[in-house]
Design goal:
By secondary structure, the protein is α+β, with helices and mostly antiparallel strands. It is 36% helix and 34% strand.
Amino acid sequence: MIRKFEPRDIEPVMQIWLSGNLQAHSFVPAAYWEQNVPLVRKQLLQAEVYVYEAEGGIQGFAGLQADYLAGIFVKQSCRSKGIGHQLLAHVKQLHPSLTLNVYQKNRRAAAFYRREGFSLVSEATDEATGEIDCIMRWRAGQS
């Protein structure tokens, strides 16, 4: 079931966020993600967030700021079961256009977004990590 985030969801959502970033971005020092936990916690409480809840727990979430998709994160044990697709389909129903950033080296995520209809807009070096960051966009009605 997909539902709106509630403040009581913050701990499991933060655990999924941190472990997901550490797993997907082995090319970025772990300290970078760990240092950003307080900021992300604060941002999540102010963002538009949807959680996927099943079997008594949160298995994934999608976070947005207006039409910017800050990320979709799925618990490692729940990946490749369509949860990310369901979360993205949900936010696509609410937003006619979405933009996101994904690291070039995060090939799995970049391929997922391409399959979901996102196209590359531009690439730049992320100053915080030194990694190539891709900006991707999706618009309703475009394939």
